[in-house]
Specification:
This protein has 474 residues and is an all-beta fold.
Length: 474
């Protein structure tokens, strides 16, 4: 006799891309009957890309649909989706299988207009959201659905959406910073209800639960317990009776003291050859006990005020990084995230630094013309196009056999005319010389050349008079 199969709670789940709304729309049918206000069925939808290294992002809702922003994923990626059902603290149905998979196509998509009716008004969510059993990466960003109702819609549970990009940054074993972005920028009268729920009590402490009401989009939470796991949920609200029917959630495990590491003593050095291309080297110290506990680093840097962050990632065995293609005399912001082997992610906070000022090279090139008759050479140079020849009053030509000497110890030849050439006499045989040409303007200003040119004189003791000679050869 065959036993009957249990009826699934989530029936006929589907997911599709709606390019007109810039979302992935996920919907399903529910086999559950409506319950009392305090026993609502809650669904947790998790989604991620098909990349093995990607982490799940979570959205919790009392509705039978969610809207995932397409901006979360790149064009051509596959989005994997699963749904879990809970009522109160009871798990009704674990993650649905098989996973829903939808391909993201943001370009050249043509389809008939797709309209979604505004979601029905939902009853007020309980003060403490039900526990989610699936782990969330400490630094994962939880994206709430995008708003579909017009902005002039009346306030209510169905027209409010939770904030976007809800994430938690661990600042110390007992401190965490929560950040998010408004679902609708500029909307007035919105505040946020953040519920913090302690999930474990390995330390033997009493489980902590608290609710924070704030109109800001970030705050720092202290007095956390090292080693314990916490769940944070956030909802938008216009009053105590009007909150979003969907909540964004994130789970974190606070690190223990001996498992925590953040970059503190950061050494920044720069090397620039011209104003638009330079390298900034970063080095820091790692305590011996943390040498094998760091899996990788994420380094992000941005030109001040640009809002555009460039990112590099590298293995945790290295405690240095090089930032390429930076501008000279420019202020940058820098932040470094440390990924530990215990899946804890710590952020160093923001460093601010300014790259050194480097003048544009006024000299395009220097040619060395060698004479076989006497031990002399003739230097000829060309100005860069951005240097106006009519403003040039003369040149300062510096010559030395040691490029590391200060300017005062180089031989200086001052040319008080616009002639861009100089003959150098009585040079030593088979000797390397370094030369730099600065430009003097008619207004008295000097354009210092950052580039130093190198050439070698001919070896008179072993010379074939008929042989060609390259003064730049070693």
């Amino acid at each position: 006799m065959v036993s009957p199969q249990p009826v699934p709670v989530v029936k006929d789940p589907t997911a599709r891309v709606v390019p007109e709304l810039d979302i992935v729309y996920v919907e399903w049918k529910s086999a559950q009957k409506p319950q009392s206000k305090n026993m609502d069925t809650m669904y947790t939808v998790r989604h991620k890309s098909g990349n093995e290294q990607s982490s799940w992002k979570y959205v919790r809702t009392a509705e039978s649909n969610v809207r995932i922003p397409l901006s979360t994923y790149k064009n051509g990626e596959n989005v994997h989706i699963q749904i879990k059902t809970e009522r109160g603290s009871q798990l009704l149905e674990d993650w649905t299988t098989p996973e829903l998979v939808v391909a993201v196509a943001k370009k050249s998509v043509r389809s008939a207009p797709f309209r979604l009716s505004p979601p029905p008004a939902q009853p007020q969510a309980p003060a403490h959201s039900p526990q989610a059993s699936a782990p969330v990466h400490p630094q994962s960003q939880v994206h709430a659905p995008l708003a579909l109702a017009p902005q002039n819609a009346q306030s209510g549970g169905g027209s409010l959406l939770p904030p976007l990009h809800f994430n938690a940054n661990i600042l110390s074993p007992t401190t965490v910073q929560l950040k998010w972005q408004p679902a609708i920028s500029g909307r007035q009268g919105i505040y946020y209800l953040v519920n913090v729920k302690q999930l474990t009590t390995a330390s033997g402490s009493t489980l902590q639960n608290q609710q924070i009401k704030t109109a800001a989009t970030s705050f720092t939470l202290g007095k956390m317990i090292a080693g314990e796991k916490y769940e944070m949920t956030i909802r938008s609200a216009t009053s105590q009776d009007t909150t979003s029917g969907t909540a964004a959630i994130v789970e974190i495990t606070m690190p223990r003291e001996d498992d925590y590491f953040e970059i503190g003593n950061l050494i920044i050095s720069s090397h620039f050859r011209n104003p638009s291309h330079g390298i900034v080297n970063l080095t820091w110290e790692v305590p011996p006990q943390m040498q094998n506990r760091i899996s990788s680093y994420n380094v992000e840097y941005s030109e001040m005020g640009s809002g555009y962050w460039q990112k590099i990632q590298f293995h945790g065995a290295s405690s240095s990084a090089a930032l390429h293609h930076l501008k000279s005399n420019t202020e940058y912001l820098l932040r470094i995230k440390t990924n530990l082997v215990n899946n804890i992610v710590t952020e160093s906070g923001q460093f601010r630094f300014r790259t050194p000022r480097v003048e544009a090279n006024p000299i395009h090139k220097v040619d060395v013309i060698y004479s076989h008759d006497v031990n002399s050479v003739k230097l000829q140079w060309m100005l860069e196009p951005h240097i106006l020849a009519e403003k040039v009053a003369g040149y300062d030509v510096y010559l030395s056999q040691d490029k590391d000497l200060p300017d005062s110890q180089w031989k200086l030849v001052r040319l008080n005319n616009k002639e861009s050439s100089l003959s150098l006499e009585d040079l030593k045989s088979s000797t390397i010389y370094f030369v730099r040409v600065n430009v003097r303007n008619a207004d008295g200003s000097v354009i210092r050349a950052p580039s130093v040119y190198r050439f070698k004189t001919i070896d008179w003791s072993n010379t074939n008079p008929n042989a060609d000679f390259n003064p730049f050869d070693d």
